[in-house]
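Shift notes (night). Ran phosphoserine phosphatase while the centrifuge was going.
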Amino acid sequence: MNLQSRNGKYAKLIIFDMDSTLINAETIDELAKAAGVGDEVANITNYAMNGMMDYGDALRKRVAMLQGLSVKKALEASDKMPYNRGVGELMEQIRAFGYRTAMISGGFTISADRIGRELGMDYVYSNTLVIEDGVLAGKVTGPLTEHDSKEQVLTQIASQESVNPGKCVVIGDGANDIQLFKKAGYRIAFNSKPVLQQYADVVVDGNDLRKVIPVIEALNNDLL
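Came back to this:
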């Protein structure tokens, strides 16, 4: 499959963040509510997503606070997280234009695998919460545990698709997407924190993903 657009400016490969981009929630915050530490974890998430705390440190600190949460309650919490409006329409239009899709999330397989499957993502990358005896052990493993991990995964996916990562399209919302934005060719800041917007080619306010469709349409027609 030729993923290059007609003039070769952008590849037909779109990389999505998950939390607060595809879904209207931060997975770790919802798990923290179920564990009874919602406020404490949400404060750290806010610092991390606004670039005021190292992402890797913030991730490990928050995950440690989930220790003891049962897998049953974790699944119940993750299954309740809603999609952002218009996600179905956006994905349908993207596929009609012939784009391949990937979801690179600092969230967890406990939700990312299901969401990626429901949305028909071609690639899904996320972290794994360590489970011991049916409860969360307060530890995390996976490919997206540091501030520059998304950039590295983008490079890997682009290599598999035989495209230049500097020609890929990315959509994200927080500080942990900065390195991803720096690497990509066209950057869409959606429902985003101010810290990310300075790296974006376009800023889409609100949480209705249908607003992204005209941007993708313009990219597909080589108008941007």
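Residues 1-7 have pLDDT under 50 and may be disordered. The first helix runs from residue 27 to 35.
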